[in-house]
Design brief:
Elements (H helix, E strand, L loop, with lengths): L2 E4 L2 E4 L10 H5 L2 E9 L2 E2 L2 H14 L8 H14 L5 E8 L17 E8 L6 H5 L1 E7 L14 H12 L4 E6 L2 E5 L3 E6 L2 E4 L10 H12 L4 E3 L4 H5 L3 E6 L3 E8 L2 E2 L7 H17 L2
Parallel strand pairs: 7-8, 7-14, 11-12
Antiparallel strand pairs: 1-2, 1-6, 3-4, 3-5, 5-6, 8-9, 10-11, 10-13, 13-14, 14-15
Helix pairs in contact: 6-8
This protein binds 4'-deoxy-4'-aminopyridoxal-5'-phosphate (PMP).
4'-deoxy-4'-aminopyridoxal-5'-phosphate (PMP) binds next to helix 6 and strand 13.
Length: 283
């Protein structure tokens, strides 16, 4: 049984409890981060805690969680659960208060919880074989730059895709691809690597930012701009980025095979460079 973290304490997973009045539960008034663990080390940890601060500031939480404290419970969770490869999920809710649409004006104590989950990251089947995605309308709100736990539409989109035999959904606004259900999207056309610009309609992914650096290092040019569903379907290569998927090749979009239907060469070299880079700086 896993040991999890809740408000300063480590407990068995079936003993950790939150209040029924928690605003995270009642209003999705909460933010989260998912940090990868490889060889029992944290990947891109610093960027995750910085983004957690940003999400809390955007929702006007009146408190922040000390970064050393976050690092300490991450390390302890890795130890207690003997986690070699997988992820740590951390969630911070605004806290517990009587139900009201009006957010509390005074600072209240946030609820902080975290747990580990094992997952194959380096040698995953999806990295080896690539995935198939379908497009559907992006019906989410317009603040997807904040990493909130308001994830219902993303979950519905992913479920619709898997029910239809795909692995994930790429979402469209006015014909342009925004992002995947839980990842950023990239295509390669005539040696041009493209990823959508970051704005309020997508989460500015940490993997995306590091992959942009890796592409520079390999002397690849990346164009950060909108691309359409048609651009994606006719791409030479496509991939998506996320903390636990790293770089995952896409081999089919709707009914269109991408390239020769196998993970593309640019995608594979970028993934190798990304892995080299993050392992060097893992803590
Ligand atoms: N977009 C969305 C909607 C996501 O949920 C995620 C993963 N949390 C990402 C992009 C990728 O972000 P990151 O690389 O920081 O995991």
């Amino acid at each position: 049984m896993r040991q999890v973290y809740i408000n300063g304490e480590f407990k068995k997973e079936d003993e950790a409890k939150v209040s029924i009045f928690d605003r995270g539960l009642l209003f999705s008034d909460s933010v989260y981060e998912v940090t990868s663990v490889i060889n029992s080390k944290l990947i891109d940890f610093k960027y995750h805690v910085e983004r957690l601060d940003r999400s809390m500031n955007e929702l006007k939480f009146k408190t922040l969680i000390d970064h050393d404290e976050i690092l300490a419970f991450h390390r302890k969770l890795i130890d207690l659960n003997n986690l070699k490869e997988g992820m740590i999920y951390t969630q911070v809710t605004r806290g517990v208060v009587d139900r009201s649409f009006d957010m509390p004006k005074q600072a209240i104590k946030p609820t902080v919880l975290a747990f580990t989950q094992e997952k194959k990251i380096l040698e995953s089947d999806t990295a080896k074989n690539g995935i198939k995605v379908m497009t559907l309308e992006d019906m989410r709100w317009k603040r997807n730059d904040i990493k909130t736990t308001q994830l219902l539409y993303a979950s519905m989109a992913k479920s619709e895709a898997t029910a239809k035999g795909f692995d994930d959904a790429w979402m469209l606004r006015q014909g342009y691809v925004t992002e995947g259900s839980s990842n950023n999207v990239w295509i390669i056309r005539s040696k041009n690597i493209m990823t959508r610009q970051s704005d309020n309609l997508i989460l500015s992914g940490i993997t995306r930012a590091v992959v942009l650096e890796c592409a520079k290092k390999l002397d690849y040019e990346v164009i950060t701009k909108n691309f359409t569903k048609v651009d994606a379907e006719s791409a030479d290569e496509a991939f998506m980025t996320s903390s636990t998927g790293l770089i995952t090749p896409v081999i089919k979009i709707n009914s269109s095979q991408i390239g020769d239907g196998k993970p593309g060469n640019f995608t594979k070299s970028l993934r190798a460079e990304y892995i080299k880079r993050v392992l060097e700086i893992a803590i």
